[in-house]
Design a protein that fits this description.
Number of strands: 0
Oligomer: single chain
Number of helices: 8
Radius of gyration: 20 Å
Number of domains: 1
Structural class: mainly alpha
Amino acid sequence: MNVNWFKYSSPQTFFPLAGALAPWFLSAALLLGAVGLYLGFFVAPTDAQQGEAYRIIFIHVPAAWMSMFLYVVMAFWAGVGLVLNTRLSGMMASAVAPTGALFSFIALWTGSLRGKPTWGTWWVWDARLTSELILLFLYFGFMALQAAIDDPRRADKAGAVLALVGVINVPIIYFSVQWWNTLHQGASVSLKSAPTMAATMFAGMIVMALGFWMYSIAAALLRVRCIILERERHADWVAQYVRTLK
C-alpha cells in the first residue's frame, strides 16, 4: 500500500497525526529515560579518577548532543520553509527551538556541576563551554526574533536566516577540543573508534540520549499542534475541532 506522505505537509492533515504520535514518543521517552538513569546511576561502575561525581555525564553528555542535533534540525526546517515557502516547515522550526534551548541550558548547568569537583571551578571561558553558551543565545535569538515580528510568515523567514547562519557554531562546538587547548576533555564516544569507557557506561549514555531524542520529538509534536491552532485559528477546520472539545 502506497502512502502519500506529502499530504502531511499541510498543517490541517499533520495536526491529527502529530496528536496520535506524540503519546507514543512520550511513553518511549519515559521508559528510556528511566532505564538510562538506572544504568547510569546504579549499574555503571564508579570512575577511578572522578569517583561518583562523574555520573552527571549521563545527563550532561546526551543533553549536549541533543542541543547540537536539535539546532541542526531547527535550521533544516527553517531552511526548507525559506526555500519552499511551506507553512508547516516554519512551524516545525519554531516547535523545535524551545526544546533545543532547554537541552543547551541543561548541558551548561550540568557541565558546571561537573566542573567544580573536576576542574575546581564552576565556569571557565573554555572554547567548548563558550561556544555552547553561544548556542543557547542563538536559540534565544531565534525565538525572540520570531516573537518580535507580528506577521508569522515574515517571522519564519527572518528566523530562518538567523538559524542558517548560526549552524556554523555547531561544528565549532564539536571540534573545539581538537582545534584549541581546552580544559574540556575529548570525546569519549566517536564514530571513528571504539568508546573509551566501560560497556555499561556507554549503554547508559546511549539509552539516555535515545530517551532525550524521544522526548524532543514528543515535545515538538505537541508544541507544533499549539502553533498550528494559533496560526490557523480563523480556518473552518479549527473551528470544527474546537467545537468537538466542548
